[in-house]
């Protein structure tokens, strides 16, 4: 079975593609068809979404202090023990793979327990990420990667002194991984084909040791794309030769509907693919809209390996994570869904479907990690993007945190610059059974979700 392979970053950009427009009602010249194939093929490599993030945020201090490492009570982490800090589940853009980026101040001290007291045990720390790749066909693969920022050389391995103007800025360090991929992806095109499309990643960020994070983020980056030429779910043309580089001329002397009209023949390189690629791209490409983690640097406990959770103890809806808000208000600042305006679907963008030029509706996939603290109750998480537009997800897991998912449509503006807020609320049927939520992510869903 022939596999088509496309390398991103091969020097092809929209400005370098021959400008032969494909105009309706005119003969389809070879040069024009070649130009459109090349132009559509360039779209897939021009995007870098942020998939998830955990950071210092609005906290006034780090989890890691700057005190002596000799103490009666534990002040610093124990060596080598990971602490969960964030988790998300996102579907990757076809041909993309995640990479981890860390912006941090120098790491602090470590401790160990000895003869009834905690004493120094070196210093330093790592940011660890576990990524589970799932293509829905093969067994999921989990890849673990670590980054190690520099360690503080100050007394007590302290952070830069607050009184020293600019000290923290000067001490900031940035480190990043390469692409995080399943094994053998770039060595064998048949392996790449398995993991280049329809891949969902479940990511968990952990802190090991005394990390002082300013910003820890996971983004996706374009790499390579491959698919079987008989696969008609086209995220891109893979309009390339055997070397993965873009074709310089159209491979036929004249435009065709498909490369081969034989039964089981090659359906690509023609008008079928010219219409199929933009349809799939419109269905599939879209933003990561919402990312929430309950981790708070200022209140995190270095002795606890499990991630903290946001608790809801009310039988009416309470905003997550701002408990003073109890109802949706479009005028209240919130998480923006405005990027969804660029991802409207053709079948819901028309004026006869969605209130003319005022609103758009986009499909999204909601992932949340939640539980109930006691039995006999039901929790509810509501995702809302307008007074009339929401979905409610039941939470019934007791004791253990469980994953909950839902697909829905949310309201967005018709353009990315339009104001559009999205809010998440929670409630429980019994005040004695807390609804606890650790992580929420909302990803563009698409019609082929």
Keywords:
5-stranded antiparallel β-sheet; 449 residues; 3 domains; 22 strands; 4 helices; mainly beta; Jelly Rolls
Describe this structure in words.
This protein folds into three domains: 101 residues, no CATH class; 175 residues, no CATH class; 136 residues, Jelly Rolls, CATH 2.60.120. The protein contains four helices and 22 strands. By secondary structure, it is mostly beta strands.
Q: Percent helix among the residues?
A: under 10%
What is the count of β-strands? 22
Overall shape: it is globular
DSSP summary: helix tally? 4
Mean pLDDT: 87
Pattern of helices and strands:
EHEEEEEEEHEHEEEHEEEEEEEEEE
Ranges with pLDDT <50 over ≥5 residues?
11-16
Structural class: mainly beta
The portion of residues forming beta strands comes to: 35-45%
Strand count, sense and closure of the main sheet? 5 strands, antiparallel
Terminal Cα separation, in Å?
A: 26 Å
How big is the Rg?
25 Å
Q: What's this, in brief?
A:
The chain has 449 residues and is mostly beta strands. It has helices at 30-43, 167-171, 189-195, 271-284, and strands at residues 3-7, 50-55, 82-91, 96-105, 109-114, 117-123, 125-134, 141-147, 173-176, 200-209, 212-222, 224-228, 288-293, 310-312, 318-319, 335-336, 360-372, 379-386, 389-395, 402-412, 421-428, 435-444.
């Amino acid at each position: 079975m022939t596999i088509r392979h496309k390398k991103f970053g091969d020097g092809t950009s929209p400005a370098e593609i021959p400008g032969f427009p494909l105009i309706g009602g005119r003969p389809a010249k070879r040069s024009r068809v070649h130009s459109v194939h090349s132009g559509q093929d360039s779209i897939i490599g021009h995007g870098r979404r942020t998939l998830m993030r955990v950071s210092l945020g609005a906290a006034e201090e780090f989890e890691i202090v700057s005190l002596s490492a000799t103490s009666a009570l534990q002040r610093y982490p124990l060596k080598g023990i990971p602490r969960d800090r964030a988790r998300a589940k996102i579907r990757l853009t076809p041909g993309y793979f995640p990479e981890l980026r860390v912006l941090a101040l120098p790491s602090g001290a470590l401790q160990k327990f000895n003869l009834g007291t905690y004493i120094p045990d070196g210093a330093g720390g790592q940011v660890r990420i576990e990524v589970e790749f799932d293509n829905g066909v093969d067994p999921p693969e989990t890849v673990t990667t670590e980054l190690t920022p520099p360690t503080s050389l100050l007394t007590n391995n302290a952070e830069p002194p607050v009184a020293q103007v600019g000290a923290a800025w000067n001490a900031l360090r940035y480190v990043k991984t390469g692409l995080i991929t399943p094994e053998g992806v770039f060595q064998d095109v048949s392996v790449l084909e398995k993991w280049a499309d329809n891949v969902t990643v479940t990511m968990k960020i952990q802190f090991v040791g005394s990390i002082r994070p300013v910003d820890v983020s996971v983004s996706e980056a374009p790499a390579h794309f491959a698919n079987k030429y008989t696969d008609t779910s086209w995220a891109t043309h893979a309009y390339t030769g055997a070397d993965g580089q873009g074709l310089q001329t159209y491979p036929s002397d004249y435009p065709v509907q498909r490369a081969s009209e034989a039964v089981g023949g090659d359906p690509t390189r023609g008008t079928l693919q010219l219409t199929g690629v933009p349809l799939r791209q419109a269905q599939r490409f879209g933003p990561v809209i919402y990312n929430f983690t309950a981790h708070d640097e200022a209140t995190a406990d270095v002795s606890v390996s499990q991630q903290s959770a946001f608790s809801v103890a009310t039988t009416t809806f309470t905003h997550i994570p701002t408990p003073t808000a109890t109802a949706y208000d479009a005028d209240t600042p919130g998480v923006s869904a405005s990027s969804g305006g660029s991802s409207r679907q053709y079948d819901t963008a028309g004026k006869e479907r969605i209130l003319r030029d005022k609103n758009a509706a986009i499909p999204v996939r909601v992932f949340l990690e939640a539980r109930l603290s006691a039995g006999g109750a039901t929790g509810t998480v509501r995702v809302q993007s307008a007074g009339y537009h929401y979905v409610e997800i039941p939470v019934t897991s007791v004791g253990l945190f469980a994953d909950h998912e839902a697909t829905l449509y949310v309201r967005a503006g018709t353009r990315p610059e339009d104001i559009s807020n999205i809010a998440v609320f929670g409630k429980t049927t019994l005040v004695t059974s807390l609804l606890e939520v650790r992580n929420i992510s909302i990803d563009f869903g698409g019609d082929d979700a």
